[in-house]
């Protein structure tokens, strides 16, 4: 029998924080039902654990990216239906129809194929209509809706119970977002002349927290669900970050003045320094672009700078200011003291990418 090795790095996820954040979103959008977005393994937090946590919270759909994620939800035992947010390939659609999963059409050809499959299975398939008001990655343009309306008699097995769109800049460009909401409202009005629409959705986290959309009755929160507001300085005091990332120190030693650190020798010590190696690297999602960007981790409550280049499995930090530090001690990589927004800014990216880049070899430890 071999001793089980402790993890070099791991993530801790507070499921109660996710429940709390859902409550904040409901208060911010009191007239909307909620579709929590759990795609990309719930933004790195773990699809099955997050979905099971929210399954009994009175939600309408789970937002997933593809059929594979919908299948994982089904196997997890969740009762809430998945809504597939991404385009589906023709060869995937039979599984969607067979399971009565919900998705959208964005072309007449999509609608025709779903009609044929629904007829084959003898089903009335509930679908949504995707509108492109500026995102540019799929959906009917507003001026194409009359073509769809004219085609409706040829789609007797499809029940178009929803209409949705995506706002590309709700967290960045207020005026453009207002214009896109106006286009969406016009599209809803056009479709309502021919279709009895149940669900109307366009609001992501930013729009859910900051905009009033007259016709919308379904919101699709993503980042805010995990405790981070996409709108700078708004709502962060009420949301609770759910994920923290930790790693163990593997080596602690003193290096002399003028000693080089890591690949490329991009850092040299200016004086004798106590240096620690930490068991996390870019293969775990700690971005290589954080090298020499004043990134830091926390050891025993003290901020310790990251030195030199980030390597595949390890980073190197200066622990000279930390008393009584030893191999096996824990560094906070991301969390209460190192916010994801800080890490993203230093890496030249966004919090979404930081979360979804946390590697599969990082164990997730859940607290409920």
Number of helices: 11
> What name does CATH use for the topology of the largest domain?
TIM Barrel
In CATH, the homologous superfamily of the largest domain goes by the name Alanine racemase
Strand content: 15-25%
Q: Give me the strand/helix succession.
A: EHEHHEHEHEHEHEHEHEEEEEEEEEHHE
Distance separating the two termini: 32 Å
**Biggest beta sheet attributes:** 6 strands, antiparallel, barrel
Number of domains: 2
Under CATH at level 1, the class of the largest domain stands as Alpha Beta
Rg over CA atoms, rounded to whole Å, is 24 Å
Order of neighbouring strands in the sheet with most strands = 10-13-16-15-14-17
Give the name of the CATH architecture of the largest domain: Alpha-Beta Barrel
User: Mean pLDDT, nearest integer?
Assistant: 96
Strand tally: 18
Q: What global shape is seen?
A: elongated
Helix content: 25-40%
Low-confidence stretches: none
> Structural class of the secondary elements?
alpha/beta
Question: How does this model look, in words?
Answer:
- The chain is α/β, with parallel strands linked by helices.
- The protein folds into 2 domains: 15-226, Alanine racemase (TIM Barrel); 243-367, Lyase, Ornithine Decarboxylase, Chain A, domain 1 (Beta Barrel).
- The chain has helices at residues 15-28, 39-43, 47-54, 67-76, 93-99, 108-121, 145-151, 174-192, 205-210, 340-347, 351-356, and strands at residues 9-14, 33-34, 62-64, 82-84, 104-105, 125-131, 158-165, 199-203, 218-219, 243-255, 260-261, 267-268, 273-278, 296-299, 302-307, 315-318, 330-334, 364-367.
- The strands form 4 sheets. A 6-stranded antiparallel β-barrel has the order 10-13-16-15-14-17.
- Helix 1 (15-28) crosses helix 3, helix 3 packs across helix 4 and helix 5 packs across helix 6.
- It is elongated.
- It starts with 8 loop residues before the first strand and ends with a strand.
- The model has no long low-confidence stretch (mean pLDDT 96).
């Amino acid at each position: 029998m071999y001793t089980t090795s402790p993890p070099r790095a791991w993530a801790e996820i507070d499921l109660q924080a996710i429940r709390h954040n859902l409550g904040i979103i409901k208060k911010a959008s009191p007239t909307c039902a909620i579709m929590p977005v759990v795609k990309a393994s719930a933004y790195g937090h773990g699809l099955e654990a997050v979905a099971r946590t929210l399954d009994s919270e009175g939600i309408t759909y789970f937002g997933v990216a593809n059929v594979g994620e919908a299948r994982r939800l089904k196997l997890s035992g969740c009762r809430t239906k998945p809504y597939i947010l991404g385009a589906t390939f023709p060869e995937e659609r039979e599984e969607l129809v067979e399971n009565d999963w919900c998705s959208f059409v964005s072309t007449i050809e999509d609608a025709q194929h779903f009609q044929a499959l629904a007829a084959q299975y003898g089903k009335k398939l509930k679908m949504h209509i995707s509108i492109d008001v500026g995102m540019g990655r799929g959906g009917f343009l507003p001026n194409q809706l009359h073509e769809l309306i004219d085609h409706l008699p040829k789609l007797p097995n499809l029940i178009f119970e929803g209409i949705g769109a995506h706002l590309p800049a709700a967290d960045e460009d207020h005026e453009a977002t207002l214009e896109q909401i106006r286009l969406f409202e016009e599209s809803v009005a056009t479709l309502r002349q021919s279709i009895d629409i149940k669900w109307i959705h366009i609001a992501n986290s930013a729009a859910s927290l900051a905009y009033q959309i007259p016709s919308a009755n379904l919101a699709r929160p993503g980042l805010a669900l995990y405790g981070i507001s996409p709108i700078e300085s708004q709502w962060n005091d009420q949301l609770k970050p759910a994920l923290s990332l930790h790693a163990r120190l593997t080596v602690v030693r003193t290096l002399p003045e003028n000693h080089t650190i890591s690949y490329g020798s991009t850092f040299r010590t200016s004086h004798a320094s106590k240096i620690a190696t930490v068991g996390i690297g870019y293969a775990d999602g700690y971005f290589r672009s954080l090298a020499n960007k004043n990134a830091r981790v926390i050891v025993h409550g003290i901020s310790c700078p990251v030195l030199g280049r980030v390597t595949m499995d390890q980073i190197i930090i200066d622990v000279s200011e930390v008393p009584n530090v030893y191999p096996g001690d824990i560094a906070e990589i991301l969390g209460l003291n190192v916010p994801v927004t800080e890490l993203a800014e230093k890496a030249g990216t966004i919090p979404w990418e930081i979360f979804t880049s946390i590697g599969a070899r990082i164990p997730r430890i859940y607290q409920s």
